[in-house]
Amino acid sequence: MNKYLISCFSAAIYLTLALSPFQSFARSEYWNQRVSLFDKLPITSADIVFLGNSITDGGEFAELFNDENIKNRGINSDEISGVKERLSQITSGNPKKIFLLIGINDISHNLSVDEIAKRYDSLVKEIKEQTPSTKLYIQSIMPINNDYGRYKNLQGKESIVLKVNERLKSIADENNATFIDLFPALSDREGKLKREYTNDGLHLLGNGYKAWANHIKEYVIE
Fold first, then answer.
1. What is the rounded average pLDDT for all residues in the chain?
2. Three-state SS for 73?
3. SS3 188
4. What is the model's pTM?
5. Is residue 6 predicted with pLDDT exceeding 50?
6. Looking at the predicted structure, is the pLDDT value of residue 180 above 80?
7. Domains of the chain
8. What strand order describes the sheet that includes 97-101?
9. How confident is the model at residue 116 (pLDDT cuts 50, 70, 90)?
10. Start-to-end C-alpha separation, the chain
11. In degrees rounded to 5, what are phi and psi of residue 202?
């Protein structure tokens, strides 16, 4: 193969990878551990599933709502493409409801608002196609508080969070899902995650989870 063909071949490979709509970051050992466990814990049509990343992962929702049919399928550091990759674990059981909270890690990976919206819309469409009887609740990305200086990749991205949330509301409307804005329950007057709800500016303390649960309670028990 001459140098010209090699160059063209290499360029084609690069473009294929660069344009892959769901090119994702390497999955962690923890991600694979949790997915392996979830394979052994099938979802049923009586279940309510909380699906997302570390913020969901840290919540004891079955206890918060006193309902053993609530299942936590959050995984630390997950992103939209990771949820999409493991989606069949949930949709194959045709759960009663899904509460989706995902996207902050995609923002931290410097994806554009348009790319995040594109990935999110594709995920929502798959959920609706794979389990049309499931009620889908799209929760807004939560407020962040960069005063802690903990997450460098989220510094200065408060406006991106708001722009993504605007797109999520539109995606919910277009796909017959319910949008839940979490900002009224968790943000202070400046739009930051309340200090009494967090100790790192992103993840929730106990009273943060209680505020979240109280805010969405009507949707969980309806």
1. 91
2. strand
3. coil
4. 0.89
5. no
6. yes
7. 26-221 (3.40.50.1110)
8. 70-74, 48-52, 97-101, 135-139, 178-180
9. very high
10. 65
11. -135, -50
Structure tokens at 179: 């949008």
Alpha-carbon distances of 183 from 11, 75, 220, rounded to whole Å: 44, 22, 18
Supply the pLDDT for residue 36.
97
Report whether 55 contacts 33 (CB < 8 A).
Answer: no
Per-residue pLDDT, averaged over 103-128, amounts to 98
Q: In the predicted model, is pLDDT for residue 193 greater than 70?
A: yes
Which among 2, 50, 64 is positioned nearest to 217, based on CA atoms? 64
- Token couple for 211: 């505020």
Mean pLDDT throughout 111-134?
98
**Which neighbouring-strand residues pair with 74?**
52
CB 67 within 8 A of CB 216: no
CB 83 within 8 A of CB 123: yes
Please count the residues of the chain. Answer: 222
Ordered alpha helix ranges (H), 156-195:
158-174, 183-186
Residue 212 has, within 13 A of its CA and on its CB side, a CA count of 26
Task: Note the pLDDT of residue 222.
Answer: 84
β-partners of residue 97 are 48, 135
Count the neighbouring beta carbons within 10 Å of the beta carbon of residue 76: 16
